[in-house]
Amino acid sequence: MQGNGKVVIVSGPSGVGKSTICKEVVKRLNNAYISISATTRPRSPSEVDGNDYWFLSEEEFQQRIDDGLLLEYAEVFGHLYGTPRDTVDEALRSGKTVILEIDVQGAKQAKTVFPDAVMIFILPPSPKTLEERMNHRGREGADAAEERLNGADTEIAAAWQYYKRMVINDDLQQAVNECVQIIESNESES
Ligand code: 5GP
After folding, report:
1. What is the CATH number of domain 6-184?
2. 189 in Cβ contact with 114 (< 8 Å)
3. Best residue for ligand 1 mutational test, from 55, 81, 111 (most atoms within 8 Å of Cβ)
4. Biggest CA pair distance of the chain
5. What's the pTM?
6. Ranges of each domain in the chain
7. Per-residue pLDDT of the chain (190 residues; tens, 9 = 90+)
8. How big is the CA angle at 25 (ends 22 and 29), to the nearest 5 degrees?
9. Which residue puts its alpha carbon closest to atom 14 of ligand 1?
10. Ligand 1: which atom is nearest the Cα of residue 53?
């Protein structure tokens, strides 16, 4: 049940700046909401439970899967990530634009639940920029950062099949403008 609201799926490789873009986009839209995902990934010191993610144990996450509380979930870089169904449904019922910042595997699942979802993939201006941003971010250790960079090629390759809208995050404001335009033009992928 999508209600009156609109679903926007935003994906892109790690370090491309999805979160920053989504936070800016939500400020520019009327009545929009960024879904807070559940994850088994450890919380980094700068992150707040219930704000950045709901940080769960494997058991707690599995329980939510078993109870059908997640509208999609996937394993990404060795950890589980999923979208809570209830808050998304509630936001859609009240006519909000709901932004799901999720990976390509999750996006495919979410698209079957919400066929009218707008799908946007964020690209880095170049592989080199992504590497620099990942290193600069310094959230992960070197091994995890390397794994995420290696995963970027696969994710980008898969994205060409599923996302009609690709936005290059070279200039932040321009990327935000493009996303807002895509969302406001009310285009769906289907
Ligand atoms: P990070 O650990 O950097 O916050 O996120 C790693 C990856 O997991 C990113 O590609 C992000 O989009 C994805 N992700 C975050 N939340 C979800 C979710 O609820 N579902 C899915 N499928 N992927 C998610």
Report:
1. 3.40.50.300
2. no
3. 81
4. 44
5. 0.93
6. 6-184
7. 456 899 999 999 999 999 999 999 999 998 999 999 999 999 999 999 999 999 999 999 999 999 999 999 999 999 999 999 999 999 999 999 999 999 999 999 999 999 999 999 999 998 889 888 888 877 778 888 888 888 898 899 989 889 989 999 999 999 999 999 999 996 554 4
8. 135
9. 102
10. 16
